[in-house]
Design goal:
Yope Regulator, Chain: A, alpha+beta, globular, single chain
Length: about 200
């Protein structure tokens, strides 16, 4: 049987994806990644948890936003609608301070996760953060309804991805509708480009 998946393998996966590690805690078994870009600062925490025989990988994007009393119902309605739409991850709220976070728990089959599986889950989480990063401000300050805010976030994200990929020499005929089925590596590259300022 292969060695149990641990912080060393997780560090290797993150390094293979050319992501910068902000902090590692081997005893608590977590890695923190920090992102600084034009859309603000945010973090993703990757951690391993053991519950009896079950070992799981946790991916958490804390402090995505804060829901206060102003338009609280509309914000929660929008987050619930997104939870219904996305394949991986779920938004949650801390009822004490209103903190919104996005998280995903992946059970490790036979204590393992392949690099490709990790990349898929991580890419999906990054895409969700990138797509809905401006959701709450659109509702609270932009007076959008939950539906309008969700549609605007999705439209803006796919327009940005489309404009980046349209620089390719070959283009689709004008009557072909753009597809929302994106390659995981393309998503990850685009999301990293959006959030991470490249070092000179």
């Amino acid at each position: 049987m292969a060695d149990e998946f641990g912080i060393a393998q997780l560090t290797e996966y993150v390094t293979r994806m050319n992501l910068k590690i902000a902090r590692t805690d081997e005893e608590q078994e977590y890695i923190e990644l920090a992102f600084h870009g034009t859309r603000g600062q945010w973090r993703i925490i990757l951690g391993l948890q053991q519950h009896g025989d079950l070992r799981k990988l946790m991916l958490i994007a804390p402090h995505i936003g804060t829901v206060a009393n102003k338009k609280r119902l509309e914000c929660l309605e929008a987050l619930m609608a997104i939870n219904y739409r996305i394949a991986m991850g779920k938004f949650g709220i801390d009822l004490d301070d209103g903190e919104i976070r996005l998280e995903e728990a992946v059970p490790l089959a036979q204590g393992q996760i392949s690099f490709e599986q990790f990349q898929l889950v991580f890419g999906a989480l990054m895409q969700t953060v990138a797509m809905y990063h401006d959701l709450l401000p659109r509702i609270i300050y932009g007076n959008s309804t939950a539906r309008e805010a969700i549609e605007a976030c999705e439209h803006d994200f796919f327009q940005e991805v489309k404009s980046e990929t349209s620089e390719e020499p070959a283009s689709l005929p004008a009557n072909d509708a753009p597809t929302h089925e994106l390659d995981v590596s393309d998503i990850l590259a685009e999301v990293t480009r959006i959030f991470e300022e490249r070092a000179e």
